[in-house]
């Protein structure tokens, strides 16, 4: 999850345009677009303001985390492939 | 996983009839790099009248039938249920005019990309962000793992593509 996908997900679930979110949050529309594309990242406080402007909130709690390196390695491998190769590999694995 | 599944045949039939649609669901996630297995295709069609007529022709070509074994009547069936589940000669096909958390085709098409799958097939596939949005909106236990994978793929893609800066 990136801050950009979180902002975009909140905005679209609230059925807001970037202009509407800009008006609600007081943030510049072009900056919202850059945040959504993860060109730059907002601070945590700004992220929370944007999500709240969409009618949601961020529930932040600390939970144990351990990187799943094996899963990451599998995903890294599939990302090296073309879409056609990914589909082919999945169909082969189904057999 | 059992059963016939020939996604290229389904996509070919859709493309032959020039149907406007976006691939979502498990197949969309696999095309983006998810390591899950899937045995069907989920699509979001444009619900414009002419497109539904073309979709109907493609479904005829695929010998699509509903749970009652009968060919679907698209306009009637799509008005009655949020997901039209069909069996075709090439595997399962779900037609979802308005997936959870979205406003349907026009909402998804902006971030969708055409992905080359070989055999001359280049379907439009929903973006990873939109695939995550749909799973999150469903709030189902069974979707937690694919949702985690999609979100991790977004992170890995971003890490690959650019450096980062923190800005207030």
Report the radius of gyration of chain A as a whole number of Å: 18 Å
The oligomeric status of these chains comes to heterodimer
Low-confidence stretches of chain B are: none
DSSP helix count of chain B?
A: 7
Question: Greatest chain-chain interface?
Answer: A-B, 35 and 45 residues
How large, in whole angstroms, is the Cα Rg of chain B?
Answer: 16 Å
Structurally, the number of domains of chain A stands at 2
Task: Give the termini distance of chain A in whole angstroms.
Answer: 32 Å
Average pLDDT level of chain B: 91
Largest sheet of chain B: 4 strands, mixed
Write down the overall mean pLDDT of chain A.
Answer: 92
The rough form of chain B would be described as globular
Estimate what percentage of residues of chain A fall within beta strands. Answer: under 5%
CATH architecture of the largest domain in chain A: Orthogonal Bundle
Helix content of chain B: 40-55%
CATH topology of the largest domain in chain A: 434 Repressor (Amino-terminal Domain)
Q: Can you tell me the CATH superfamily of the largest domain in chain A?
A: lambda repressor-like DNA-binding domains
Helix proportion of chain A: 55-70%
Features:
heterodimer; A: 95 residues; mainly alpha; 434 Repressor (Amino-terminal Domain); 2 domains; 6 helices; elongated; B: 168 residues; alpha+beta; Beta Polymerase, domain 2; four-stranded mixed beta sheet; two-stranded antiparallel ribbon; 6 strands; 42% helix; globular
Give a quick summary of the entry.
The complex is a heterodimer of chains A (95) and B (168). Chain A is mainly α and 95 residues long.
């Amino acid at each position: 999850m990136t801050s950009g996908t979180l902002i975009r997900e909140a905005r679209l679930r609230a059925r807001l345009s970037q202009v509407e979110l800009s008006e609600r949050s007081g943030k510049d529309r072009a900056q919202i677009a850059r945040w959504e594309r993860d060109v730059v990242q907002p601070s945590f406080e700004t992220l929370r303001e944007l999500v709240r402007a969409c009618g949601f909130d961020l529930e932040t709690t600390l939970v144990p985390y351990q990187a799943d390196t094996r899963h990451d390695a599998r995903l890294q491998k599939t990302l090296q492939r073309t879409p056609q190769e990914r589909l082919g590999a999945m169909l082969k694995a189904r057999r | 996983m059992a059963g016939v599944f020939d996604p290229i045949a389904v996509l070919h039939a859709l493309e032959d009839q020039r149907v406007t649609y976006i691939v979502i669901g498990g197949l969309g996630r696999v095309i983006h790099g998810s390591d899950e297995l899937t045995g069907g295709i989920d699509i979001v069609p444009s619900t414009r009248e002419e497109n539904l007529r073309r979709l109907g022709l493609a479904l005829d070509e695929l010998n699509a039938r509903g749970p009652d074994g009968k060919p679907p009547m698209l306009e009637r069936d799509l008005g009655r249920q949020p997901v039209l589940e069909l069996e075709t000669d090439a595997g399962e096909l779900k037609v979802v005019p308005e997936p959870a958390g979205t406003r349907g085709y026009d909402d998804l098409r902006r971030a969708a990309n055409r992905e080359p799958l070989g055999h001359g097939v280049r379907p439009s596939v929903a973006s990873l962000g939109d695939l995550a949005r749909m799973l999150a909106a469903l709030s189902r236990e069974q979707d937690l793992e694919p949702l985690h994978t999609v979100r991790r793929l977004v992170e890995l893609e971003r890490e690959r593509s650019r450096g980062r800066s923190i800005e207030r």
